[in-house]
């Protein structure tokens, strides 16, 4: 590290920005600028996993299991709650609205004239399910309320996250960050990667040296968007350590909320951890049976918390003047 630099400065110096970086910066800035003069609340939702390339011309990489279920569902519900949404997502992970078609697209369609194969239509059962989804999607597209920006690697994600924060900073407490992406804890600096595909060496094992990714939540809260409502996520497999780790994160980074969840029950319940308390949100058996998603309850509660935060910030601003 050079004199005066920080570990996260060092990280950005060691990782290349994503492809079409300038184009994506323009997309984010244009979307935020569109709402800058209004009182519209904006949320940046991050979603999906991050790859860690092992070569510069990447063939192999380290990955995780996240496909963006929580992030894509949450983005939809935030739109329902009146937010404009920047959806920073892993390429080819689940997208808001599109996620409902991921596994059954062909099952939704039928041939009107099987003999000639000349016409395709959406069958009646699928029409009933898809019509309200299409109406919601068309409405948010018409009113320019959803901005999609993709990433692939860990480096891509963090470069774009910093840019998005810089763009959102002037919105102060109107901005919310919902950091649901599954971010790798380790990476290989660009200058330590081989350019080409790593070759197997007979029966010799491959040894990798990975560096720790700096905790970007610290500069994000302190410097990048100091007035925004910032939410992080904590996923554990051991429930006994979950709340302790969530509280430690709040103490260390001083953001507003941690959504804590256990791997095995993450689709049915979450715990909202703030500096002062913990609150369990859970689906009842009846809610689960009728297909309700935990993200519906989660985003409704968070929208209320953000509204209180925004209202109090506005009062404080008026008082100070």
TrEMBL record:
<dbReference type="Pfam" id="PF04127">
    <property type="entry name" value="DFP"/>
</dbReference>
<comment type="similarity">
    <text>Belongs to the PPC synthetase family.</text>
</comment>
<dbReference type="InterPro" id="IPR035929">
    <property type="entry name" value="CoaB-like_sf"/>
</dbReference>
<dbReference type="GO" id="GO:0003824">
    <property type="term" value="F:catalytic activity"/>
</dbReference>
<dbReference type="InterPro" id="IPR007085">
    <property type="entry name" value="DNA/pantothenate-metab_flavo_C"/>
</dbReference>
<feature type="domain" description="DNA/pantothenate metabolism flavoprotein C-terminal">
    <location>
        <begin position="176"/>
        <end position="297"/>
    </location>
</feature>
<dbReference type="GO" id="GO:0015937">
    <property type="term" value="P:coenzyme A biosynthetic process"/>
</dbReference>
<protein>
    <recommendedName>
        <fullName>DNA/pantothenate metabolism flavoprotein C-terminal domain-containing protein</fullName>
    </recommendedName>
</protein>
């Amino acid at each position: 590290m050079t004199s005066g630099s920080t570990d996260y400065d060092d990280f950005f110096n060691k990782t290349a920005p994503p492809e079409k970086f300038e184009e994506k910066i323009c997309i984010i800035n244009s979307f935020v600028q569109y709402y800058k003069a209004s009182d519209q609340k904006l949320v940046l939702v991050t979603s999906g996993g991050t790859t860690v390339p092992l070569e510069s011309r990447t063939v192999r990489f380290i990955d995780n299991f996240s496909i963006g279920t929580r992030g894509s569902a949450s983005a939809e519900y935030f739109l329902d709650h009146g937010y404009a949404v920047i959806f920073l997502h892993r390429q080819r992970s689940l997208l808001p609205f599109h996620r409902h078609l991921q596994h059954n697209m062909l099952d939704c369609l039928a041939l009107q004239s099987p003999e000639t194969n000349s016409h395709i239509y959406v069958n009646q059962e699928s029409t009933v399910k898809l019509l309200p989804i299409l109406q919601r999607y068309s409405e948010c597209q018409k009113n320019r309320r959803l901005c999609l920006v993709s990433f692939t690697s860990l480096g891509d994600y963090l470069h774009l996250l910093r840019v998005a924060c810089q763009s959102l900073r002037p919105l102060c407490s109107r901005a919310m960050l919902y950091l649901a992406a599954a971010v790798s804890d380790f990476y290989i600096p660009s200058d330590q990667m081989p350019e080409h595909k790593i070759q197997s060496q007979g029966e010799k094992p491959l040894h990798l040296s990975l560096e720790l990714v700096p905790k970007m939540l610290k500069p994000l809260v302190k410097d990048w968007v100091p007035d925004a409502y910032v939410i992080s996520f904590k996923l554990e497999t051991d429930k006994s350590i979950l709340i302790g780790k969530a509280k430690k994160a709040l103490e260390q980074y001083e953001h507003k909320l941690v959504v804590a969840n256990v791997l095995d029950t993450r689709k049915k319940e979450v715990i909202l951890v703030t500096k002062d308390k913990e609150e369990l949100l859970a689906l009842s058996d009846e809610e689960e049976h009728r297909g309700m998603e935990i993200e519906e309850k989660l985003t409704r509660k968070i929208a209320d918390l953000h509204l209180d935060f925004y209202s109090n910030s506005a009062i404080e601003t008026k008082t100070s003047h």
